[in-house]
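tokens incoming
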């Protein structure tokens, strides 16, 4: 009887230990899965996007909001060894490499957010940057978000007659200077000219 009691006790203890181990393994697996699918950038789902858009004041037409095609030119300036003259050349040029939406953000402390529209039919869209207008509404500071929490700051000007945002950022690495020039060309909404009647 004592042997039978001991074997029942051991089987209950083994079952409890195994159950505890399985539960802990499931929790570790769940935590690893959640960590693995954690997005790199803040995400905005379609509902939240529509709320932000619908919360705007309809009476104030915002000229900066819209969908833009983005291009970039990177220039490198340096003084080669044994040379007295600086050399400047284009090291990278990407025309229309991205499509983004710039929306006024009524739900947070930011003025405008930039949302990447590169992939269609997503559950949510990454916020890739934010704009803040200066006193002169044609000058803006742009903070561009990169992977791993990095960000870069650009100074932008807005040409409302051409529906164009142009930005610049300079980076010095030793004796070499890199200049990043971004151009945002508005694709939508199209400006209605005064004489068109539409």
């Amino acid at each position: 009887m004592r042997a039978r009691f001991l074997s029942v006790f051991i089987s209950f203890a083994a079952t409890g230990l195994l159950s505890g181990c399985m539960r802990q393994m499931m929790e570790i697996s769940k935590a690893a899965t959640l960590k693995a699918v954690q997005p790199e950038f803040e995400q905005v789902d379609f509902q939240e996007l529509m709320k932000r858009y619908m919360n705007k004041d309809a009476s104030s037409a915002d000229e900066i909001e819209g969908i833009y095609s983005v291009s970039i030119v990177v220039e490198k300036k340096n003084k080669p060894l044994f040379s007295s003259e600086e050399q400047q050349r284009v090291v990278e040029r990407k025309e229309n490499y991205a499509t983004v939406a710039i929306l006024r953000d009524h739900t947070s402390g930011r003025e405008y957010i930039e949302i990447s529209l590169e992939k269609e039919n997503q559950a949510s869209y990454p916020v890739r940057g934010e704009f803040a207008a200066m006193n002169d509404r044609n000058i803006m500071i742009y903070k561009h978000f990169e992977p791993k929490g990095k960000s870069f700051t650009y100074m932008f000007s807005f040409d409302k007659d051409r529906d164009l945002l142009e930005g610049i950022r300079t980076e010095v690495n030793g004796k070499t200077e890199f200049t990043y020039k971004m151009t945002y060309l508005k694709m939508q909404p199209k400006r209605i000219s005064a004489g068109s009647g539409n």
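note: Residues 43-188 form a domain with the Lipocalin fold (CATH 2.40.128).
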